[in-house]
Write a structure and sequence with these properties.
By secondary structure, the chain is an alpha+beta fold. It is 21% helix and 31% strand.
Length: 121
């Protein structure tokens, strides 16, 4: 099985994504600049920044959001759940991937982290 690694531009020891066996596995994404600086804001602002970054990473593997089959979401507090769902909904007009949501203290004290798995077209 061949692996294709998509390196990150951030100063951290991980790949943005790894393609393997017909799937694209994305590292967890937080609201962050390309050089690794955290970008704070509302839950909606963080989700939108994350989803733009995810779209760019998927495109590197010739995939799109419609190819996402699974998402794991971490929120800093379940009080953000309703706003998260509102911000998430418009990104998947063709149907939602399977998804889990849990809470955790996140890197840089951000409020949202999302990890994705997609099937390659």
């Amino acid at each position: 099985m061949a692996l294709v690694r998509y390196p990150t531009s951030k100063p951290f020891p991980f790949s943005d994504a790894v393609a393997a066996n017909g799937f694209l596995f994305l590292s967890g994404k937080v609201s962050m600049s390309p050089d690794g600086q955290p970008l704070y804001g509302t839950i909606t602002e963080q989700v939108n920044r994350i989803m733009h970054s995810v779209s760019e990473t998927l495109a590197r593997g010739d995939a799109q959001l419609r190819n996402v089959v699974r998402a794991q979401v971490w929120l800093s507090d379940m009080a953000h759940f309703a706003e998260f769902n509102q911000a998430w909904r418009p990104w998947f007009p063709e149907g939602f991937p399977s998804r889990s949501v849990t809470t955790s203290r996140l890197a840089f004290d951000l409020d949202v982290e999302i990890e994705f798995q997609a099937v390659l077209p």
